[in-house]
Amino acid sequence: MANAKKFQLLIRRLHVYVGLFFFGFLLVFTVSGFTFNHRWGLWDGARNRVEVNREAECRAPEGLEPLAVGRYVAEKAGVYGEVRSVFLRPERNQIEVVVYRPGYQANLTVDTEKGIAKVQERHMNGWVLMMNLHTLTGLHSNLQEKRNWLPTHLWSLMMDLTVLAILFLLGSGFYLWLQLTAMRRAGLWALGIGLASLLVLVFGVLR
What we know:
- This protein has about 210 residues and is of the alpha+beta class.
- The chain is built from six helices and five strands, in the order ααβαββββααα.
- The longest helix is centred in the C-terminal third of the chain and has 30 residues, at about 150-180.
């Protein structure tokens, strides 16, 4: 009996502390999910962005792998982030590179003959940045080296941990509910109605 009480106390504490640790991540996840569900002008990426066009000197070296070329071009252009795509077009004497981070994207076109890179930068507002965080996986790339930017690695890791935390909170919440005898009947109603609503919606979508 004493061990059961200790275990229940441990689960209760973990439930609280895990929830508090991941509070910020869950807040970002829920708010960004809400923005995806509503097309409001406040986070319309086409309207809420600032575009900057400029040029930079860039003589890309030959014989490098695409990712190395992309990083070199980005460094010379003074931009940083994840290298999402690199297109080497020797027949046009051109290199195209896309560099991305939440709230920002740079399209770089290098004229290899002139050694000039045309840089088009797009700066988004905070709401679009929030949406970008929701979908930041590092997998949207034509390169073999996915997640080639350290912050993307770290963010992806935290998203995996956040998912595990949600599963833990579900499991621990269910366990703690079972310990509250007085709330079992009301809890069963809430659980049953919630699952029934899910089934109805899934059935309606799949019809």
